[in-house]
């Protein structure tokens, strides 16, 4: 199907967006499934006495968010690559719901930032203790990512007594070689101490969703216009003529044989017509 320049641009923007969303969706889903079914964390979900409500909720959110993102990518990628209006319309609805949900979650998280910070800190503490007891590589990667993003080190931050020193980022100054900010305290006050980081995550995610929504709407309208437009057949070559044309057939014998006298047939009379005998 022929698309104009704007339609082609929006199509490739959607492909890039779906690629980013697919990578994030697989990362969230993989991490959530690993934390859910790993040997070092499986006991938390099977024991009711453990104080692990925040950890269980965090793992559930990771799995659900990863599945939702992959479903959105499936409709978006199919609609953009195959130029299907129905899939693009479903993609627009899902992206709109994600944008609204992101705005609501951001507002609620900021309004209840103390409680949310404490829950995230509890989730981090549970992962930290699980890593100390099991040295799980998936937990090590997760802790390293969080520590580098927030620039903090473990539960204490003291390099001498910190057990998970290998997951901590490089110190920036002389004093950080001795004492770095503890991740528990940083996460608890993340909406105050890391306000720019939190705002950047929400604003960046919202901007990506809005761009995807605009591009999908433009591509859907372009496909509809190209389908409803009349189709024309353009002839690029002229009709071929016979190289050796045949002479036309002349039914008049006087023209076909002009050098001979015309043959005259006498009219039929009643006497000439044979009559069938009974």
Report what the structure shows:
The structure is a single chain. This protein is an all-alpha fold. Helices cover 64% and strands 0% of the residues. The protein is built from ten helices and no strands. The protein has helices at residues 5-37, 42-46, 53-82, 85-111, 113-134, 137-150, 183-188, 190-193, 195-228, 253-256. Helix 1 packs antiparallel against helix 3 (53-82), helix 1 (5-37) packs across helix 9 and helix 4 (85-111) runs antiparallel to helix 9. The longest helix is centred in the C-terminal third of the chain and has 34 residues, at 195-228. The two termini are 78 Å apart. Residues 249-257 have low confidence and may be disordered.
So what's the overall shape?
elongated
Sheet of most strands = none
Name the assembly state: single chain
Nearest-angstrom radius of gyration? 39 Å
Distance between the termini: 78 Å
What's the average pLDDT?
77
The percentage of residues in β strands lies in: under 5%
Which structural class is indicated by helix and strand composition?
A: mainly alpha
Q: Please bin the fraction of helical residues.
A: 55-70%
Tally of helical segments: 10
Sketch the topology as an H/E string, one letter per element.
HHHHHHHHHH
Number of strands: 0
Would you identify the regions where 5 or more consecutive residues have pLDDT less than 50?
249-257
């Amino acid at each position: 199907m022929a698309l104009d320049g704007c339609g082609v641009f929006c199509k490739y923007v959607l492909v890039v967006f779906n690629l980013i969303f697919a990578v994030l969706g697989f990362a969230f889903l993989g991490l959530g499934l690993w934390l859910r079914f790993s040997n070092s964390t499986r006991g938390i979900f099977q024991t009711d006495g453990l104080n692990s409500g925040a950890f269980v909720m965090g793992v559930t959110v990771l799995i659900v968010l990863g599945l939702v993102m992959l479903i959105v990518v499936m409709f978006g990628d199919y609609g953009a690559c195959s130029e299907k209006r129905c899939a693009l319309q479903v993609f627009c609805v899902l992206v709109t719901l994600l944008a609204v949900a992101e705005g609501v979650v951001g507002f609620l998280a900021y309004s209840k930032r103390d409680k949310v910070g404490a829950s995230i800190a509890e989730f981090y503490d549970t992962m930290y203790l699980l890593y100390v007891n099991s040295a799980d590589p998936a937990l090590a990667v997760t802790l390293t990512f969080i520590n580098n993003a927030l620039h903090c080190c473990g539960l204490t931050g003291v390099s001498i007594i910190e057990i998970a020193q290998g997951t901590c980022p490089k110190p920036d100054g002389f004093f950080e070689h001795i004492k770095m900010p503890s991740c528990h305290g940083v996460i608890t006050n993340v909406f105050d101490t890391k306000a720019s980081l939190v705002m950047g995550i929400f604003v960046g995610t919202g901007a990506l969703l809005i761009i995807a929504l605009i591009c999908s709407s433009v591509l859907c309208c372009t496909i509809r216009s190209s389908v409803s437009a009349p189709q024309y057949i353009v002839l690029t070559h002229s009709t071929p003529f016979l190289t050796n044309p045949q002479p036309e057939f002349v039914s008049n014998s006087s023209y076909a044989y002009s050098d001979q006298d015309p043959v005259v047939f006498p009219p039929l009379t009643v006497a000439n017509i044979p009559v069938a005998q009974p």
